[in-house]
Amino acid sequence: MESSFLCIMFMRVLFLVSLFQLIVLTHSSPSIQSLCHVDESSALLQFKNSFSIKGSESSDRLACPKIASWTLDGQNSDCCSWDGVICDEDTGHVIELDLSSCNLYGSINSNSSLFHLVHLQRLNLAFNNFNYSQIPSQVGNLSRLTYLNLSSSMLSGEIPFTLMNLTKLTFLGLSSNNFQGPIPSSIVHLYNLEVLDVYNNNLNGTVELCMFLNMKSLGMLDLSHNELSLLIDETCTNATLPKFYGLDFAACNLIEFPNFLKNQDGLQWLSLAYNNITGHIPEWMWHISKESLRVMDLSFNFLTGFDGQVPIPLPWTNLAILDLSSNQLEGSLPIPPSSTLRYNIPNNKLSGRISQWICNMTSIQMLDLSNNSLSGSLPQCLNKFGDSLLVLNLQKNKLEGSIPQTWAKGTQLRMINFSENKFQNRLPTSLANLMMLEAIDLGVNQFNDSFPYWFGNLPNLMVLCIRSNKFNGPIVIPNAEYKFPNLRVLDLSNNSFSGKLPLEIFQNWKYRDFENESPLTYIHVKTNFTIPKGSWNYHLSYDYNYSMEITNKGMNMVYQRVQELFRGIDMSSNRFEGEIPESIGDLKVLHLFNVSNNFLSSNIPFSLENLAGLESLDLSLNRLLGEIPQQLTQLNFLQYFNVSYNNLTGHIPSGQQFNTFQNNSFEGNSGLCGSPLTNNCDTLLPPASISENSEDSDSPFEFDWKIVVIGYGFGTVVGVIIGHVVTARNPDWLRKTFGMKQLGRRHRN
Ligand SMILES: *[C@@H]1O[C@H](CO)[C@@H](O)[C@H](O)[C@H]1NC(C)=O
Ligand SMILES: *[C@@H]1O[C@H](CO)[C@@H](O)[C@H](O)[C@H]1NC(C)=O
Ligand SMILES: *[C@@H]1O[C@H](CO)[C@@H](O)[C@H](O)[C@H]1NC(C)=O
Ligand SMILES: *[C@@H]1O[C@H](CO)[C@@H](O)[C@H](O)[C@H]1NC(C)=O
Ligand SMILES: *[C@@H]1O[C@H](CO)[C@@H](O)[C@H](O)[C@H]1NC(C)=O
Ligand SMILES: *[C@@H]1O[C@H](CO)[C@@H](O)[C@H](O)[C@H]1NC(C)=O
Ligand SMILES: *[C@@H]1O[C@H](CO)[C@@H](O)[C@H](O)[C@H]1NC(C)=O
Ligand SMILES: *[C@@H]1O[C@H](CO)[C@@H](O)[C@H](O)[C@H]1NC(C)=O
Ligand SMILES: *[C@@H]1O[C@H](CO)[C@@H](O)[C@H](O)[C@H]1NC(C)=O
Ligand SMILES: *[C@@H]1O[C@H](CO)[C@@H](O)[C@H](O)[C@H]1NC(C)=O
Ligand SMILES: *[C@@H]1O[C@H](CO)[C@@H](O)[C@H](O)[C@H]1NC(C)=O
Ligand SMILES: *[C@@H]1O[C@H](CO)[C@@H](O)[C@H](O)[C@H]1NC(C)=O
């Protein structure tokens, strides 16, 4: 019983990954003197005027400074000098139009003057809001187009067949819109196309890989995150397909490894993520595109293992990113080459020891081996990873022994998660050298130590979790230098700490101004890198978000992201005694406070009423005396309140949030009366004494663990949203497009 209780009284930090892939786009600025054609300048102005610019009047110019310069008056009347417009030097025709990220709002109609600009070779309307209009079939009029970028511009409907008339296209970017239907087979007429990107739409139906057979220029094919099913017919796949440099078939309903990959020796980027590929990773996969491959993503499949011997290290000599997360991989941990920046293999069933070889990954920035069955002790060289390591996540394995003892100054580590293993012994104080550290989770291990006050030195530390270990003794901060200047989440729960509640850890909250913190900022680590390929750049930018499992509002929840402004203290299930000091009222920014299951014996301080943002307050299973202060009804955001199993007396306050709490918030206090309890205040009996346990037992009370689980008050006001509750497959955190290194200057006809 008790251990079940211990399991739910926690807050833990996980790490989760978000992947954002963004673009670098370098413009060459036009310097043209030619005079534009009158019909084209009026077509441009008409096009401009067919939109409003989203946002307030005053921000218009900020939203799209380009378009503001467009006018027929005075010196600026030459449309070839307008921002975003490029004309042919000789003919004066408009050949390039770039109104990307202009906040244009409105529909593109079939009679839009855009289609009069028939000399256009490059058109970029990405990142606008075309109000879910369709691409009019008149786009077929722009037959000279080589580059068409309509990414993220709120277009919908089917891709018009006439688009396939644009046989000069080399780039077609339709990603992140709302396009429907299947991809027209006539796309094969775009035999000059180099990049086809329909990522993140609602396209459905089947796509036959063989239809791309004759598109010999096709280098990058991104069909990911639609409702498409990719069919791969062996008859065309052997030697005849284009040589791709990038393939993204994420969420394309694949059920096996496409054999044609064997013949692809120039791949730089391959994603087969979010498919239903089962069985073993075939041996040949380790050997495709050995020199060229930079990114390999097989995450979110049903892979169970590896065929043959897994080479150590893996033979892709220039690999930067390897993602094998969320499969069912068994066997020992594959070791990527030393070039690897990011290695993700959480949520599998890998076992055995972590080989010394892993320390050869001297460029590694993010290493996530969490949620496997890795065992044995850690290679002590782990702390010798280069200065590049930012994230180290070993959560939820079976690792044991001491954690590495020497941590050097000057490392960049921002997140460490060693939780849910079997690590023992004391914590190395050299962890205090990790000056960049923002979050560390050591919870659910067997560390046996006094409170690691020396973390108080770290200027950026936001989250410290040491729950469910054997930490013990009173919490003493020996020196005023240990200020914990940035701490916002502290979880000490389920240890054997004694003495007074250590609220002085948070004294800086009194002085800091948190008002300016944005609710949109999440605790995360961002990295990026670029793969250049010919005239293209893939600029990849990764967000690694903290995720936190927390007992909030009486329920145990996993949040994918944690807002930086969230403040929580969990000191439950220890042996703290004495009072809840009045100084609790200084922690005005607190959202969650849990000191349940200790030996606290004071009154409930009135000053709690100052914690205006408090959402969850758990004081249950102590020896608190006196009445529940009426002032607590002022806490408008309080959704969960639990004072059960104390020695409280008197009337239960009523009104506001208190009307939403049920009797399990109050039970086990024989001196309490009034709604929602059944004992009427008029007929109150003298309080019966609570059966006492000896102070030697691990827990102050014997109790039924269910008490703690059921308690749940439905608040009417919602305050801080810590993050989003986990959903397993969420392509929300995957965003990308491809970027050109540079847009060409001017083109002669
Ligand atoms: C956007 O579309 C909606 C629905 O079709 C329409 O009511 C609205 O007028 C459109 N707005 C603009 C600016 O075109
Ligand atoms: C363009 O078409 C829309 C409807 O599709 C119509 O409301 C508008 O008047 C037309 N504009 C011109 C200039 O014909
Ligand atoms: C498209 O081109 C055809 C002929 O080339 C022309 O008649 C038509 O007006 C054009 N459409 C638009 C919308 O400009
Ligand atoms: C453009 O495409 C349409 C539909 O696919 C077709 O009917 C038309 O003949 C094509 N026009 C040209 C000039 O190729
Ligand atoms: C594709 O989706 C459309 C609705 O958006 C539906 O009418 C059509 O049947 C779907 N096609 C397939 C092959 O599922
Ligand atoms: C394609 O290659 C595979 C093995 O790589 C072979 O089994 C298959 O017969 C070949 N198909 C054709 C059509 O050549
Ligand atoms: C893939 O797996 C999911 C979940 O197991 C299932 O719902 C879906 O139907 C599968 N799709 C295919 C193409 O097998
Ligand atoms: C751990 O990984 C397994 C797959 O091996 C998965 O089913 C489970 O949901 C994962 N647990 C967490 C907490 O992510
Ligand atoms: C990688 O590590 C292993 C074991 O620690 C070592 O024997 C080997 O020499 C290292 N290789 C390189 C290239 O550093
Ligand atoms: C990429 O990362 C570097 C260093 O980490 C940083 O200076 C740069 O601004 C980042 N670039 C982008 C586009 O995020
Ligand atoms: C509860 O409080 C009453 C007085 O209010 C006291 O007599 C009793 O001993 C207390 N019980 C415990 C367990 O502290
Ligand atoms: C499409 O346009 C957007 C906005 O300018 C840009 O970020 C993106 O790189 C472009 N895509 C390509 C492939 O050029």
How would you concisely characterize the structure shown here?
Helix content is 5%, strand content 26%. It is mostly beta strands and 749 residues long.
Can you characterise this structure?
The chain is mainly beta. Mean pLDDT is 81; it is low at 1-32, 56-62, 685-737 and 739-749. The strands form 9 sheets. It has a 22-stranded mixed beta sheet, with no helix packed on it. Strands 1, 37, 38, 39, 49 and 50 form a 6-stranded mixed beta sheet that branches. It is globular, with a radius of gyration of 31 Å. It has a domain at 438-515 and 549-691: Alpha-Beta Horseshoe (Leucine-rich repeat, LRR (right-handed beta-alpha superhelix)). Helix content is 5%, strand content 26%. The protein is built from 6 helices and 50 strands. The longest helix is centred in the N-terminal third of the chain and has 12 residues, at 38-49. Bound molecules: 2-acetamido-2-deoxy-beta-D-glucopyranose (12 copies).
Task: Please specify the SSE layout and strand pairing.
Layout: H1 2-8, E1 11-22, H2 38-49, E2 52-53, H3 60-63, H4 65-68, E3 85-87, E4 94-98, E5 104-105, E6 122-124, E7 133-134, E8 147-149, E9 155-158, E10 171-173, E11 178-180, E12 195-197, E13 204-208, E14 220-222, E15 227-231, H5 234-237, E16 246-248, E17 269-271, E18 278-281, E19 295-297, E20 302-306, E21 321-323, E22 330-331, E23 342-344, E24 349-352, E25 366-368, E26 373-377, E27 391-393, E28 398-401, E29 415-417, E30 422-425, E31 439-441, E32 446-447, E33 463-465, E34 472-474, E35 489-491, E36 496-499, E37 524-533, E38 536-552, E39 555-559, E40 568-570, E41 575-578, E42 592-594, E43 599-600, E44 616-618, E45 625-626, E46 640-642, E47 647-651, E48 671-673, H6 706-710, E49 734-735, E50 739-740
Parallel strand pairs: 1-49, 4-6, 6-8, 7-9, 8-10, 9-11, 10-12, 12-14, 13-15, 14-16, 16-17, 17-19, 18-20, 19-21, 21-23, 22-24, 23-25, 24-26, 25-27, 26-28, 27-29, 28-30, 29-31, 30-32, 31-33, 33-35, 34-36, 35-40, 36-41, 40-42, 41-43, 42-44, 44-46, 45-47, 47-48
Antiparallel strand pairs: 1-38, 2-5, 3-4, 37-38, 38-39, 38-50
The structure holds 2-acetamido-2-deoxy-beta-D-glucopyranose (12 copies).
